Amino acid sequence: MAETTRRAVMLGAGGAGLGALLTACASYGQPAGDTAAAPATSGSGEAQPAESESAAPKSKKKPAGDELAGTADIPEGGGKVFANQKVVVTQPTAGEFKCFTAVCTHQGCTVASVSNGTINCPCHGSKFNIADGSVANGPAAKPLAEKKITVEGDSISLA
User: Fold this and answer.
1) What is the pLDDT of residue 62?
2) Contact 154/72 with Cβ under 8 angstroms?
3) What φ, ψ does residue 114 adopt, rounded to 5°?
4) Tens of pLDDT, residues 140-155
């Protein structure tokens, strides 16, 4: 009886895995269980997507101009951090809205809160002024970059 070597076992397993990968790649984009379906053709002979094909929902990044908040959501003398968009919106005085990056200029942490007239980073204690993003307390040495927003009616959106 021939002795099976470790190399032979590994090569056999690798070949089986490669075959499965090639089969999966060949059927990519086909409806489940329909790996042999040919694309539909129009009268001109050009391939058309089959009606039964449905692509998975595509995740959409919020395009610029989508509403961040209502003006009532931003307290006067304070603000709100939007971690997903990496911005912070403030209202230094009644009806004046500002927007800054929420990424601290010290070491790149996301700021976490707005209170007592400052935007506050939890990592090392940096604080930034809500009116202009300037450093109120280090260790950060650079201000937060201002971002453009539009305020229409009671809606605040990234510009």
Assistant:
1) 42
2) yes
3) -130, 120
4) 999 999 999 999 999 9
pLDDT value at position 12?
58
Residue among 148, 139, 142, 119 nearest 131 (CA) = 119
Do 79 and 100 touch, CB atoms closer than 8 A?
no
Cα–Cα distance for residue pair 66/149, rounded to 1 Å:
10
Report the alpha-carbon distance of residue 119 to residue 139 in Å, rounded: 14
| 77 torsion bin: left (phi>0), alpha (psi -120 to 50), beta (else) | left
Type of residue at 6: R
Which domains are delineated in the chain? Answer: 67-158 (2.102.10.10)
Distance CA 112, CA 103 (A): 10
Please report, as a single letter, which amino acid is at residue 78: G
Q: Which two tokens stand for residue 78?
A: 């304070």
DSSP state of 113: E
HSE at residue 61, side-chain half, CA atoms within 13 A, is 5
pTM flag (> 0.90): no
Predicted local distance difference test score (pLDDT) of residue 55: 44
Specify whether the CB–CB gap between 105 and 142 falls below 8 A: yes
